[in-house]
């Protein structure tokens, strides 16, 4: 098993094919290792709707309990519901999910007490080392007294907590289509939206980890086609799509038009700043639109640019005392949600904003969506380093152009920018480009792609 761990222990989580790459005996070792590395006396564990999730989750709980740790199982939940439990109970937590990956995959997202992230540098490498040792030799020594395993339902409390963070008392009636993608949104949405003046049109709310209708990744345009069509058919005010573990949300307007996660970041940032008296730090990653820092400054806030990835965002939020953070991948982080990401809370902000005025969503978000963007374009390359060097060489001598290497390579001009980053797990380069108009964006996008693809 030790050789296989390099394939399943990623930068921020554990993820792989079940049972080929990992299974319940290995999950039990992960539970024991998590107990030892966190040094805790109690943890909370939850899981998504994948067929393998209940068994893996229970095995993890057994492994932790054998080391003397008391385990609270919250059962079926979204990832942000697990973060809620970790925050409110002040316990380390483990969520069994592979988010939007295909059905044969599963994984573990782990956090310390208060939903603080566990990544390679914050415990995950130590957990992997222990599991490798135990898988290769003898199992971990059980504690003199085993911990208990108990069950607790947190759904109602989670929903009430979220509703308490957004004023929804005076919104007008709205018709909203929600595509849960057969994921955990089907579990959380009915409870979170209960009591609001909404006509809810549910799509694919039946929890099914084999994803019979479409992949539960709303960032892929192919996966929101059904939602767009239904919004138009229903003459709805908006549509919302959640990913498999319902921690990300994607929004479409009344015409079915997709709304950029950068525009949602800017919208929520303006609301959070208003709530904090027009002051506060807002985190955004380096592939969000120019609109985001502009809107933040216009609303009195201070924008801070970071690398892509939830561990960087959460670390920066904790260090800087930021009130909100957003990523172009549709992850939204809130200081009043333990700096953790919750797409559901972002969705409530969108509903509150739309319901608090009379105009359509398309008109409302126009002020937050100011530039032409390429979206993320992936290219398979033989040598990531050589291609990045070629891009750098092509642009570094150009007048009026700046380069930075905070995360991959970002090239910025007065009228455009683009970023190229290497994938950590595949031989890919990821390109994001933005410009003041569509023609300039197309030109700079194609120019960069020509170098990337040789």
UniProtKB/TrEMBL annotation:
Alphabetical list of CDD domains matching this protein: PMM_PGM
GO terms for biological process, alphabetical: carbohydrate metabolic process
Alphabetized InterPro entries for the sequence: A-D-PHexomutase_a/b/a-I, A-D-PHexomutase_a/b/a-I/II/III, A-D-PHexomutase_a/b/a-II, A-D-PHexomutase_a/b/a-III, A-D-PHexomutase_C, A-D-PHexomutase_C_sf, Alpha-D-phosphohexomutase_SF
Alpha-D-phosphohexomutase alpha/beta/alpha domain boundaries: 7-133, 156-256, 263-371
UniProt entry tagged with the keyword Isomerase: yes
Keywords of this entry: Isomerase, Magnesium, Metal-binding, Phosphoprotein
Domain Alpha-D-phosphohexomutase C-terminal positions: 376-448
SUPFAM superfamilies given in the database record: Phosphoglucomutase, C-terminal domain (SSF55957), Phosphoglucomutase, first 3 domains (SSF53738)
Cofactor field: Mg(2+)
Any one GO molecular function term: intramolecular phosphotransferase activity
Recorded family membership: Belongs to the phosphohexose mutase family.
Protein name, as recorded: Phosphomannomutase/phosphoglucomutase
Annotated organism of origin: Streptomyces flaveus
Primary gene name: manB
